[in-house]
Amino acid sequence: MDKLIIISILSATFSKAIAEEFIFNSNLFIEKFKIRDKLISKYSHRKFDRRLFILEREKNEDILRFLGKPYNLEDVSDGNASILNLTVSTYGILENPDDEISYHDVANCVFIDKKSGCVLYTGSINLCTGNWKKIRFG
């Protein structure tokens, strides 16, 4: 996938975002956010989450917010020029009555139209192999 990577240095008082990756030929971009919870960072084996945004009317909007927080954008593939295939994980810490802590992670796939940022499909990671093509009717 062709993308332009621009590193932004932002003060923690203004934003938690660390860097941006712009997706070629679209208004979509990926921002990295520092994971503030040290326990989650330890169990997830990473220090940052990647989230997908769209720039609309000079406002950045998280288009995967429906997944809830926290989520991490694991992979982006651009096999089709107009549709993005994303691997996204939602995760958290579970505590049981015996005060044991465990980490859980659920992977999903999401197909997004590059031009509009419209979510075309979201579902189990097992259902998302292969390619999508736009079909025009009429």
Can you walk through the features of this model?
The chain has one domain. The chain has a 5-stranded antiparallel β-sheet with strand order 1-2-3-4-5, with no helix packed on it. Strands 6-7-8-9 form a 4-stranded antiparallel β-sheet. By secondary structure, the chain is mainly beta. The model is unreliable at 1-15 (pLDDT under 50). The chain has one helix at 38-44, and strands spanning 3-6, 17-23, 28-34, 48-56, 59-62, 71-77, 83-95, 101-113, 119-124.
- How many distinct folded domains? 1
Radius of gyration, whole Å: 16 Å
Number of strands: 9
Structural class per helix/strand content? mainly beta
SS strand fraction: over 45%
Q: Total number of helical segments?
A: 1
Largest sheet: spatial strand order: 1-2-3-4-5
- List segments where confidence is low: pLDDT < 50 over at least 5 consecutive residues: 1-15
Largest sheet: 5 strands, antiparallel
- N- to C-terminal distance: 31 Å
Mean pLDDT figure: 78
Q: Write the element-wise H/E pattern from the N-terminal end onward.
A: EEEHEEEEEE
Write down the oligomeric state: single chain
Morphology: globular
Give the SSE layout.
Layout: E1 3-6, E2 17-23, E3 28-34, H1 38-44, E4 48-56, E5 59-62, E6 71-77, E7 83-95, E8 101-113, E9 119-124
Antiparallel strand pairs: 1-2, 2-3, 3-4, 4-5, 6-7, 7-8, 8-9
Task: From the structure above, extract its key features.
single chain, 138 residues, mainly beta, 5-stranded antiparallel sheet, 4-stranded antiparallel sheet, 1 helix, 51% strand, globular, disordered N terminus
